[in-house]
């Protein structure tokens, strides 16, 4: 493998110059290194468990999962508006049905 050229240290990016220099001196991993590697969850079980937990259940769920068939054009129109397209459909249906 060709060694990557490192960019210069930039302060204020979440690491110190000392850490930058130490990482820059790290050798590339060989196939043998990868073969010896252990899974993240095995090395850091507590941290892995905390990541898996996520947000947890809603105390008072306000929405319900349903299956709904919509035309391709409707879905494309809402998705074209970016993230939150399902919430916009919900808001439009609430408005049309006069639900607060």
Mind explaining what this structure looks like?
The chain is elongated. The chain has helices at 17-24, 31-36, 40-43, 45-53, 72-80, 85-96. The chain is 48% helix and 0% strand. It has 100 residues and is mostly helical. The model has no long low-confidence stretch (mean pLDDT 87). It is built from 6 helices and no strands.
Write the layout of secondary structure elements.
Elements: H1 17-24, H2 31-36, H3 40-43, H4 45-53, H5 72-80, H6 85-96
Pick out its properties.
single chain, 100 residues, mainly alpha, 6 helices, 48% helix, 0% strand, elongated
Q: SS-based structural class?
A: mainly alpha
| N-to-C order of helices and strands | HHHHHH
Distance between the termini: 61 Å
User: Strand fraction band?
Assistant: under 5%
Give the proportion of residues in helices: 40-55%
Q: Report the biggest beta sheet as strand number plus sense, adding barrel if it closes.
A: none
Number of strands: 0
In the predicted model, the low-confidence regions spanning at least 5 consecutive residues are none
The value of Rg in angstroms is 25 Å
How many H/I helices? 6
Question: What is the general shape?
Answer: elongated
Mean pLDDT, all residues: 87
Summarize the structure.
With about 100 residues, the protein is mostly helical. It contains six helices and no strands. The chain is elongated.
């Amino acid at each position: 493998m060709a060694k990557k050229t490192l960019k210069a240290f930039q302060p204020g990016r979440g690491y110190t110059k000392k850490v930058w220099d130490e990482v820059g001196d790290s050798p590339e991993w060989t196939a043998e290194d990868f073969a010896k590697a252990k899974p993240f969850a095995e090395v850091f079980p507590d941290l892995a468990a905390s990541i898996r937990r996520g947000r947890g259940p809603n105390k008072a769920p306000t929405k319900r999962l349903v299956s709904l068939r919509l035309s391709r054009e409707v879905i494309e129109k809402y998705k074209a508006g970016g993230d939150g397209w399902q919430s916009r459909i919900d808001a439009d249906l609430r408005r049309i049905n006069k639900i607060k």
